[in-house]
TrEMBL record:
Protein name, UniProt field: Golgi phosphoprotein 3 GPP34
UniProt keyword list: Golgi apparatus, Lipid-binding, Membrane
Organism: Allokutzneria multivorans
Membrane-topology annotation of the record: Peripheral membrane protein
Pfam families membership: GPP34
Domain of life: Bacteria
Gene3D superfamilies: yeast vps74-n-term truncation variant domain like
């Protein structure tokens, strides 16, 4: 699979602010990319929803290392678990896999260095801004275009729905959320259970962080 046909890769690029030269979603990035992989597997028929839980239907590799990593997690589980569980289960591994795929395809460059010789940082450079702009235009058309919701490409619908769930404002602004509330709900319903699960996972993550701050 070409990286830009992958939902996790698309959402990684959309999370990158070209003007500021950095990723914008902070702690939400890892759950967002994991949710994108789960949504891709669900739309592709490799995962099914059974009573709100993810179940592996086909454990055969897809050929995409990002998706296969997540599929192996789900298919290797001793019992079915909720979509929200898989979104929150060690999601940083998906970030690493997506980043490596985009480096290999020449879309980004990753440089690791230490600030003041002590603090490790990772600098990401977008090498193909045109690809990111193309992905952004597809998402914009899905959200704001004249096409009926049922005719929107499912991948584009997934990108918009997941971006909205993660408050990714480079895709869905606050004004968009108000103006396209009904369309966003309809797009999300077409995509399946993952966008709602992502929203719940991020709410739980935020609540956990707030609780930790109070200790």
């Amino acid at each position: 699979m070409h990286p830009l046909n992958s939902l996790p890769a698309r959402l990684f690029l959309l999370s990158f602010d070209q003007e500021r030269g950095r990723l914008t979603v902070g702690a939400a990035l890892a759950p967002l990319l994991r949710a994108a992989a789960l949504a891709e597997l669900h739309l592709g028929g490799r995962l099914a929803d059974t009573g709100g839980k993810a179940r592996a239907v086909a454990a055969t590799p897809s050929g995409d290392p990002v998706l296969d990593q997540v599929l192996a997690l789900v298919s290797g589980s001793a019992k079915p678990r909720s979509w929200q569980h898989w979104i929150g289960y060690r999601p940083k591994s998906t970030v690493v896999a997506v980043r490596e795929a985009l480096v290999a395809s020449g879309h980004i460059r990753v440089e690791r260095r230490r600030v003041l010789g002590l603090i490790p940082t990772t600098r990401i450079t977008l090498l193909d801004p045109g690809a990111a702009t193309h992905v952004e235009s597809l998402a914009s058309e899905a959200l704001r275009g004249a096409w009926p919701v049922e005719e929107v490409d499912l991948r584009d619908a997934a990108v918009v729905s997941l971006a909205a769930a993660a408050n990714l404002r480079t895709v869905v602004s606050r004004a968009d959320r108000r103006s396209y509330r009904k369309r966003l709900a309809e797009l999300s319903a077409r995509v399946g259970p993952v966008p709602a699960a992502l929203r719940k996972a991020l709410q739980a993550q935020s609540a956990g962080s707030a609780g930790g701050d109070g200790d």
